[in-house]
Automatic annotation (TrEMBL):
Residues 179-317 form the MoaB/Mog domain. GO terms for cellular component: cytosol. CDD domains: MoeA. This is Molybdopterin molybdenumtransferase. It comes from Pseudidiomarina halophila. GO terms for biological process: Mo-molybdopterin cofactor biosynthetic process. Its cofactor is Mg(2+). It catalyses: adenylyl-molybdopterin + molybdate = Mo-molybdopterin + AMP + H(+).
Length: 406
């Protein structure tokens, strides 16, 4: 156990260094593939489009013949799914609809709005160049091209892309299994009667569970565990049997976590850290047999912020996902912002755009017990460790809330 304060970047780097991504894979159907992580690069087995086809409703023709004073005879039609297979004599054209295969001999399409048609003859109203309004075979994707690489998280767009290549299944890493419990004698389950003087509802487990759902991991919810040595040890043993990662909230600050520390020392190697971040200072991290353990602070905002900033990148790496830096922008402080040097602040803020510039300010109370200010916020104000109070108009870094929080 160290009394050192660990800068946020060092905590992140230490965790990333220790974590090895899992390697077990499975094959899933496209409908089950959303948010899964690609395990094997996906190559295109076909060209897309698979054949030259029309981008417009109009007439397929030879561009060289499309002069404004040459009548072109309409010799047939090509519809999507019903190609034209007849001949194309000189000075003729084929009626064509969007997506239909280009008839042999035609090299361009003129939109129907740009022709005059009389019975079975058209007159072009504009000149046409080869390939006008034609989508060429393979112009989107070439057979053999790498479409998705290992470590990509599948979005609705990727799933559409896979379908467009005719792939019904995709090989992904297996889901991470994360065990979750909260700890504290003062906590009561939502839905139950509360003794208002001494109890509060267990909100952390619900916040964290929802965040884990967004990440697409399998959650093993072990519930609310009392401050009792045997109950805690039992919860850890149960979690260690089945989970890649165990996440608990509360019981990691200085005085009140004796059971947790004692049990962890018995079951594995856990370090208790003081991360130089606000909120979220007390944090436990380590190994319990085959599982990783993250002990989050009990204060509701501290639990949420450490989950977002510290645990999220760890879970992503473990699940085989490529790391991606969260989006950050520069904004001007629209009020002065109080801050003490020593810890990096993750203040909950609101940003807006005015006159082409981003402006941001704290969204109410910054107490780590006050969840309502997070509900009003749309970003973190990232105030560097050594920074002091920020004056109105000064530049700060903001990080819009990510998909775990919105
Ligand atoms: N002497 C010191 N005291 C504290 C320090 C310190 O460095 N020295 N750190 C403070 C900070 S910062 C935090 S954060 C908390 C973290 O404490 P724990 O992780 O040990 O958690 P608890 O003390 O059990 O609870 C803190 C707070 O959070 C409420 N809580 C706990 N679990 C839940 C839950 N599941 N849902 C909602 N609310 C929860 C709990 O009732 C307490 O109010 O320690 C400071 N103290
Ligand atoms: O840092 Mo604590 O985590 O202020 O609530």
């Amino acid at each position: 156990m160290s009394d050192q304060w660990l800068p946020v970047a060092d905590a992140l780097a230490t965790i990333q260094r220790q974590i090895e991504p899992l390697h077990e894979t499975e094959t899933v159907a496209l409908h089950d593939a959303l948010d899964r992580i690609i395990a094997t690069p996906v190559h295109a087995g076909i060209d897309v489009p698979g054949y030259d086809n029309s981008a417009m409703d109009g007439y397929a023709l030879r561009a060289a013949e499309a002069t404004t004073d040459t009548p072109l005879k309409v010799v047939g039609s090509a519809l999507a799914g019903h190609p034209y297979t007849g001949d194309l004599p000189p000075q003729s054209c084929v009626r064509i609809t969007t997506g239909a295969k280009m008839p042999a001999g035609c090299d361009a399409v003129i939109m129907q709005e740009q022709v005059q048609r009389t019975d079975s003859t058209i007159y072009c109203q504009s000149t046409v160049r080869p390939n006008d309004n034609v989508r060429l075979q393979g112009s989107d994707i070439r057979e053999g091209a790498v479409i998705l690489s290992r470590g990509q998280r599948l979005t609705p767009i990727h799933i559409g892309l896979l379908a467009s290549l005719g792939k019904a299944e995709v090989e992904v890493f297996r889901r991470l299994r994360v065990a979750l419990f909260s700890n504290g004698d003062e906590l009561v389950l939502p839905g139950e009667e509360l003794q208002a003087e001494s109890q509060l509802y267990d909100s952390n487990r619900f916040t964290l569970h929802a965040m884990l759902q967004r990440l697409g991991v399998e959650v093993l919810d072990l519930g609310l565990i009392a401050d009792d040595r045997d109950a805690l040890e039992h919860a850890f043993q149960q979690a260690m049997r089945s989970a890649d990662v165990i996440i608990s909230s509360a019981g990691v600050s200085v005085g009140d976590a004796d059971y947790t520390k004692e049990i962890m020392a018995k079951l594995g190697q856990i370090g208790f850290w003081k991360i130089a971040m606000k909120p979220g200072k007390p944090f436990a991290f380590g190994r319990l047999d085959e599982s990783w353990f993250c002990g989050l602070p009990g204060n509701p905002v501290a639990a949420l912020v450490t989950m977002d900033q510290i645990v999220q990148p760890m879970l992503r790496r473990l699940a085989g996902e490529h790391s991606a830096q969260p989006l950050q922008f520069q904004a001007r402080a629209s009020t002065s912002i109080r801050k003490k040097p020593g810890r990096m602040d993750f203040q909950r803020g609101r940003f807006t755009q005015r006159d082409g510039e981003l402006w941001a300010e704290p969204a109410g109370s910054q107490s780590s017990a006050v969840l309502t200010s997070v509900a009003k916020a749309n970003c973190f104000l990232l105030l560097e460790q050594d920074r002091d109070t920020i004056e109105t108009g000064e530049i700060i870094t903001i990080q819009p809330f990510d998909s775990l929080l919105t």
